[in-house]
């Protein structure tokens, strides 16, 4: 029964308010998700993030496979962080912490995700072939999209690290 983790960091040359305004708007999740995934929010994106908010959407993580995904925003500290947890969807566990930190050059976005796959050993076999590969692709797309929207900080490379326990 493995639990996987993904830790990502990306520096952006923007102010805290601008970073928070973008990240706390659920509609912007579509902006930073690859188009081929067919991401569509069905409800819950009408307001900025708040604790208890339920967001329902559909996504196609792999060709020919579309799934409903329901997340709850469980914690919010305005301007600093929020946490989303899957209530229904493709993972057995999905716990995603989003932080923003002040750095000399602007802001650093930090994501810490803990997730568990369904299907026992079959899920574990699928992790390196499908799931990890897809998450890398999603975060690479997000990195490029955020650079396009806000620019980048010279000398601050985006970090992406996977682990399991």
TrEMBL record:
<dbReference type="InterPro" id="IPR023393">
    <property type="entry name" value="START-like_dom_sf"/>
</dbReference>
<protein>
    <submittedName>
        <fullName>SRPBCC family protein</fullName>
    </submittedName>
</protein>
